[in-house]
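# nightly structure sweep
# worker-07 picked up a monomer target from the shared queue
# config: single-sequence mode, recycle default, output format = structure tokens
# input follows
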Amino acid sequence: MKNLLYLLLLLPALSFAQLPYSKMLSYDESQLKEKKFKYDKDKNQYVLNKSNGLNNVSNVFSAIGGATADIRPHSEDYRIIIQYGETGVSYLQAIFYDDNAFLNIQNWITENNINFIESTTGKKIIQTFDYDNYKVEVYVEKVGISSTTGRTTSLAKNIDESYNIYSYTISTGIPPSSKWHEKEAAKKAKADAKGKKKDIEDLF
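# output follows
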């Protein structure tokens, strides 16, 4: 009986693991500012950007020295967007390039027996699932870099500089709301009124 009671007490902890990054959904304004998020008034969202400056500097010196610059994003670069609606957070989106961070999310999905739907569009793999009243989307996009680009010297590249873009989005179900969204909706309504052909997604 004692063992059964112990298992019943333990069951909620076993069956309800915190969704990765979901704690940021409850951050208030002071916490967001403390974490260095910047508020975009026009879009009604808080944004946190991290860019590895040393990588940019090394590219400049490479170009000066006549070498081919590494134009891949640094693995430590990321962008986190917390979008608000009229009644609360609409979604959180993290865009990053760190393979290990992506693997941590995949391990969480496996360890918690998450049933997800996976689809692929060639270079992009998308996973979607529901968890704790949230809708979650994880995608990986392969970006290939050709041997010559506008950001490199005339030297031809002879190494593979392809990389992955990872995106992780938690949606709460609250529609996003801002002046920017209102302007975009107005533009779309105006285009529809003029009889402009719709995008393929709008026809689905």
